[in-house]
Design goal:
Chain A: Keywords: Amino-acid transport, ATP-binding, Nucleotide-binding, Transport. The complex is a heterodimer. Chain A is of the alpha/beta class. Chain A is built from nine helices and ten strands. A six-stranded mixed beta sheet of chain A has the order 6-7-8-3-9-10, with helices on both faces. By secondary structure, chain B is mainly α. Chain B has helices at 2-32, 40-61, 63-91, 100-120, 123-143, 149-179, 181-184, 214-236, 238-248, 250-255, 260-283, 292-307, 312-330, 333-337, 342-350, 354-371, and strands at 204-207, 210-213. The mean pLDDT of chain B is 86. The chains are: A alpha/beta, B mainly alpha.
């Protein structure tokens, strides 16, 4: 599905990502772990096209996407839920959801209706369709951001710390929703996460340190020792 | 007494509607996109000159055609300024998003260029510019088909730019030498030009003791139509939704699959087109010159800022309030009303000229902004501070 090879990204002259290789297989959930500042978000932003790598390649289903702009990548099937949610603040929840449909490749099928699956996943959204996105709480915004990404029926869902700063009960809800999404739609997921319980839901993990991938493997083999080395402060 | 006040309110609203029409485009370009467009006034002037040209064309048709020219002029003014806005956005503004100071300087430069352009535009100049664009961009287009274009791009520009400029210059000089004054005579020159209103817009509607001229009524109707059209476009159409999204969060909108560059170009083009319509309207009020835009630019920014940046309804209220206040003070109505209270009456008599009224209104606005820095209708909600 997604193949990142030998990626190098710089902020100005500082070298952030060093020769990163990573693969997300179709229908799999891959989790990226590591401490703050090791380049996880930078990697996701490079995949989305918000940052321009200096060298390396990124392929989506075999098609190189480095030359494409973020909106083209979104329409190729990457759904992005950024860190900090980035809900459009002065649009209603409904308008935010409708904007999610911008990523649908054929423009004819666009309607103004929100499919019921979205409300099955996130019932809370149904009651606040006419509220402004910016007025929702953090947890509600997070659910809205995931729902919005799903509206474009992505083939690859990219989630950047979906549980950051959110109360435990909502974390469980979001976790369950993501699991259901993978089970029902067969979408591939690339997840950045610090929350260990969530990490263990994934099929595969990559651990990052100092801008490079230092370990990877099946999450079933994700031992406490690995967690100690790459996550513990 | 009462009729005097009524007069004041009618005239104030009519002044306000001119202000609003002029500010509407800016409310989009500055209010929504955050681009400080100092060339907005010059875009209006461009619209006014377009009206003048359309009028001349229709004059030659004569008769009933001339009576209807204003509608064609409105469309032409919108199209011409929107296209110019498009070129401006693609050529200058898009490199400067998020850098207000640079945009301010760049658009001010554009406004100066435009002013001089209408003074000196002649067939030779037009031929030269068209030739240059054809040669330069044509060559770029042709060469961009080559596979190694990215590598040679800078070289191509370095060679083609002076080459096309030289060819265009020489052609211009030769054409000028051969045909002399027929092609080198400026179209408009530095003098003001006059737009004649069609017959049905002359005269006025008597209301009570005074006349409300048809031109003013026409502008009011035009303003209402524009406001309604913009409101519907922004809030009901798909492109309007995209526009509001991009102006609030550019990078996230791109990640959702919205073609942000197209949206930016369209937004700027519509804002510019509205300036063209405003220019068409003000050309009916008086003669039009290269400096026409300068008279409006300050007023329009004032309307947008007082109303609250990014709020259409704010611009509407602010335009009406500023228009009415200016008229009430400037025409001396307020001074007459307050005649019983001698010191106040003296005070307002002092300000009872057009320019002094403006001084007082400015002072009032400065005081107002001390208390409401975000304008009449500030953005609300938990996102404002973020």
């Amino acid at each position: 599905m997604l193949k990142v090879s030998d990626l190098n990204v710089y902020y100005g002259e500082s070298h952030i990502l060093r020769n990163v290789d990573m693969t997300v297989h179709p229908g799999k959930m891959v989790c990226l772990i590591g401490r703050n500042g090791v380049g996880k978000t930078t990697l996701l932003k490079s995949i989305m096209g918000l940052l321009k790598p200096r060298s390396g390649s990124i392929e989506l289903t075999g098609i190189p996407i480095l030359g494409k702009s973020p909106d083209q990548r979104a329409r190729m099937g990457i759904g992005y839920v950024p860190q900090g949610r980035e809900v459009i603040p002065r649009l209603t929840v409904k308008e935010n959801l409708i904007l999610g449909m911008e990523a649908l490749p054929d423009r004819k099928s666009k309607t103004q209706d929100i499919p019921d699956e979205i409300f099955d996943l996130f019932p809370v959204l149904k009651t606040m369709l006419w509220r402004l996105g910016g007025d929702l709480s953090g947890g509600q915004q997070q659910q809205l951001a995931i729902a919005r990404a799903l509206m474009g029926r992505p083939r690859l869902l990219v989630l950047d710390e979906p549980t950051e700063g959110i109360q435990p009960s909502i974390i469980l809800e979001i976790e369950a929703a993501v699991r259901r999404i993978v089970a029902t739609t067969g979408v591939s997921v690339l997840l950045v996460e610090q929350h260990l319980h969530f990490v263990r839901q994934a099929d595969w993990y990559y651990a990052m340190q100092k801008g490079g991938i230092v370990a990877s493997g099946s999450t079933r083999e994700l031992s406490n020792e690995v967690v100690q080395r790459f996550l513990a402060v | 007494m009462l009729s005097g006040l009524l007069d004041g309110i009618f005239s104030g609203i009519s002044i306000g509607s001119v202000l609003l029409l002029a500010a509407l485009g800016l409310a989009i370009v500055f209010g929504l996109m955050g681009v400080i467009n100092m060339a907005h006034g010059e875009l209006m002037m461009l619209g006014a000159y377009t009206t003048f040209m359309v009028q001349n064309v229709f004059k030659s048709f004569g008769g009933a055609w001339f009576e209807l020219y204003i509608f064609f002029a409105l469309i032409a003014a919108f199209v011409v300024t929107a296209l110019f806005g498009l070129v401006l956005e693609r050529g200058v503004i898009r490199y400067l998003y998020g850098r207000p100071l640079e945009t301010l300087l760049a658009t001010w430069g554009v406004s100066l260029i435009l002013q001089q352009f209408v003074r000196s535009v002649s067939w030779v100049l037009v031929i030269g510019i068209v030739l240059f664009c054809l040669l330069f961009f044509g060559a770029l287009k042709l060469l961009s088909r080559r596979p190694d274009f990215d590598r040679i791009r800078n070289w191509v520009i370095a060679i083609m730019l002076p080459l096309s400029a030289a060819i265009a210059l020489v052609t211009g000089i030769v054409v000028g030498q051969v045909y002399k004054l027929t092609v080198t005579k400026p179209w408009f020159g530095a003098q003001n030009v006059d737009v004649t209103a069609p017959k049905w817009l002359r005269g006025g509607l008597p209301i009570g003791g005074f006349q409300l001229s048809y031109v003013r009524i026409f502008i009011m109707v035009l303003t209402i139509a524009c406001v309604v059209a913009i409101y519907l476009f922004l809030n009901r159409s798909t492109w309007g939704l995209r526009m509001r999204s991009v102006t609030q969060n550019r990078s996230m909108s791109a990640c959702l699959g919205i073609p942000t560059q197209k949206v930016d170009a369209l937004t700027f083009a519509i804002g510019s087109g509205l300036a063209g319509i405003a220019g068409c309207a003000v050309s009916l009020l008086g003669s039009v010159g290269p400096n026409t835009g300068q008279n409006y630019i300050v007023d329009t920014f004032m309307v947008v800022v007082v109303g609250g940046v990014g709020k259409l309804v704010g611009s509407i209220v602010a335009a009406l309030v500023i228009g009415t206040t200016t008229y009430l003070i400037g025409s001396g109505v307020l001074a007459n009303l307050l005649a019983p209270i001698q010191p106040l009456a003296d005070f307002f008599t002092f300000f009872a000229t057009t320019s002094m009224a403006k001084v007082l209104v400015f002072a009032l606005i400065i005081v107002f902004l001390q208390f409401r820095p975000a304008g009449l209708f500030p953005q609300k909600g938990r996102t404002v501070d973020a």
